Every structure is written in C-alpha cells, then in structure tokens.
C-alpha cells in the first residue's frame, strides 16, 4: 500500500508538472488580453508548495520509516 500511494503521488506530480508547463508556455503570469483572468503567483505557489512538501514527507516516511512524516 505504501508504494501504491507513492505511485499515485508521482502520477499526480507528473500531471501537475505538465499543467505547469502548459501554463508557462501560454504566458504564465503575463496578461495578454485585458479582462482575461490569469492565475496570480501566490495562488500557483500556494498550490505547488504543499504538494511538494506532501510528496517529500511521504518519501521520507517510506525511506526512513519515520511515522511522524506520514
């Protein structure tokens, strides 16, 4: 079960990375057209940071068997 959860985390991280690449390719933080809603930097980083921390904590749990990080 532990490895299955890590695989799900990695798939989720891969999908998030591909979405981030599309977002960057389409202009990222730059506004191209007035009135078009773009995601602010705080929202993007506020979503990425907890996801990366969660993946790191689960990896530490698997590798070090540290129950506190799970």
Low-confidence stretches: none
Instruction: Profile the largest sheet.
Output: none
**Rg measurement, Å:** 16 Å
Percent of residues in helices comes to 55-70%
Description:
By secondary structure, the protein is mostly helical. Helix content is 69%, strand content 0%. The protein contains two helices and no strands. The longest helix is centred in the N-terminal third of the chain and has 24 residues. It is elongated. It starts with a helix and ends in a 6-residue tail after the last helix. The model has no long low-confidence stretch (mean pLDDT 78).
Question: Could you give a quick summary of the protein structure above?
Answer:
The chain has helices at 2-25, 41-64. The protein is mostly helical and 70 residues long.
Topology (elements, then pairings):
Blueprint: H1 2-25, H2 41-64
Question: Which descriptors apply to this entry?
Answer:
70 residues, 69% helix, single chain, mainly alpha
């Amino acid at each position: 079960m532990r490895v299955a959860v890590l695989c799900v985390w990695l798939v989720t991280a891969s999908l998030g990375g591909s979405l981030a690449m599309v977002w960057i390719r389409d202009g990222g933080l730059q506004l191209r057209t007035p009135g078009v809603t773009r995601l602010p930097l705080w929202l993007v980083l506020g979503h990425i940071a907890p996801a990366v921390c969660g993946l790191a904590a689960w990896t530490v749990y698997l590798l070090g068997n540290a129950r506190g990080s799970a």
